[in-house]
């Protein structure tokens, strides 16, 4: 059975959760490999909507073993809250396993996140304030606290006192803020630790054994390629490796064990937070796309910036990820526009540029070069096959496929599971 990585090809919010949910219905294992609870994955099953932030979306499917791997940073209050919410709605997650090497988001991480954004003022990044960046910074600085340490009371207290003594100096001397209380933190996090401890295991070893035994594994990415710490629009990025390679570094699985990389992109483009966005529409069309697509953040509720499909950006993403398939999401949102635009190149200082710039300064100068295509007026939300779509919709999909240079395997015409048209099931591991 294949191992499949599902990644976003834009600035996040591409509906990766829907694709992960779809392909994991026949999976044995689903692995969340990066990011933290600044991610938001939404799944609609029947008329019920479920929102995930840390838990793998695949946890919804019975018989699937779900892993939170070492590349993830975990806020235990959020994780336990998600488990409680699912149980209240009739879903008991029985097979969740957590890496002891995953790092813990501590109260000072969230506090530093907010204070630093306030300090930057107009130069802010646009973070969610969930403490993700500061937690990864501590990880790289080798002063972070891991899950394996949090669940050992004696070790946790020693690590907490050591790290907090440093953090409180920063809070009081640099930010003129009140210090945090170690006793309060220890009591709160010890309660989370007792809940989480039975779930902690060597996830890298278990995932490797699952791959070696031929089980179908879905690696679930968070965020989008253009937010990758190395390959995104730095510094307006997230703090983890979002690209397909991050599935290897974030789980301990080597690249030769990966069979398919499934890239997910909306049929238009959205972005949350600050940073350049060449095809952004600051007019009624952009507002219309936002309202039709309900483009508000799953995690923060912030309105998303909207624009036409940017093929230049998605070409970069498919190359960086070696994407073997493209899933085109929210095609139904574009119904009713007389004319659609596809950004196929950029114009920079009078030159036509076909590749996505590697630096933000150049990207901020980029103006979109559009190809106009006829739109369609029909409601396509009930379409069950590609041939059910209006000819103009089919042509739009095929044009994107050609410009991007990656095979379209899925077209989504709505948020529900059954509003998924699969053109190439073989590229999804089916």
Protein described:
This protein has 430 residues and is α/β, with parallel strands linked by helices. Helices cover 32% and strands 21% of the residues. It has helices spanning 16-23, 76-88, 107-120, 132-141, 147-150, 153-173, 182-196, 203-212, 245-249, 284-292, 311-321, 360-363, 391-404; strands at residues 3-8, 29-32, 41-45, 48-52, 65-68, 73-74, 96-99, 103-104, 200-201, 217-224, 260-266, 269-271, 305-307, 309-310, 325-329, 339-348, 351-353, 367-374, 408-412, 420-422. The strands form five sheets. The protein has a ten-stranded mixed β-sheet with strand order 9-7-5-2-10-1-11-15-19-20, sandwiched between helices. Strands 14, 16, 17 and 18 form a four-stranded mixed β-sheet that branches. It is globular and about 65 Å long. The model has no long low-confidence stretch (mean pLDDT 92).
- Number of continuous helical runs: 13
Structural class based on helices, strands and sheet pairing: alpha/beta
Mean pLDDT: 92
Strand content: 15-25%
Write a concise keyword list for the protein shown above.
4-stranded mixed beta sheet; alpha/beta; 32% helix; 10-stranded mixed beta sheet
Short structural summary:
The chain has helices at residues 16-23, 76-88, 107-120, 132-141, 147-150, 153-173, 182-196, 203-212, 245-249, 284-292, 311-321, 360-363, 391-404; strands at 3-8, 29-32, 41-45, 48-52, 65-68, 73-74, 96-99, 103-104, 200-201, 217-224, 260-266, 269-271, 305-307, 309-310, 325-329, 339-348, 351-353, 367-374, 408-412, 420-422.
SSE layout and pairing:
Blueprint: E1 3-8, H1 16-23, E2 29-32, E3 41-45, E4 48-52, E5 65-68, E6 73-74, H2 76-88, E7 96-99, E8 103-104, H3 107-120, H4 132-141, H5 147-150, H6 153-173, H7 182-196, E9 200-201, H8 203-212, E10 217-224, H9 245-249, E11 260-266, E12 269-271, H10 284-292, E13 305-307, E14 309-310, H11 311-321, E15 325-329, E16 339-348, E17 351-353, H12 360-363, E18 367-374, H13 391-404, E19 408-412, E20 420-422
Parallel strand pairs: 1-10, 1-11, 2-5, 2-10, 5-7, 6-8, 7-9, 11-15, 14-16, 15-19
Antiparallel strand pairs: 3-4, 12-13, 16-17, 16-18, 19-20
Helix pairs in contact: 3-4, 6-7
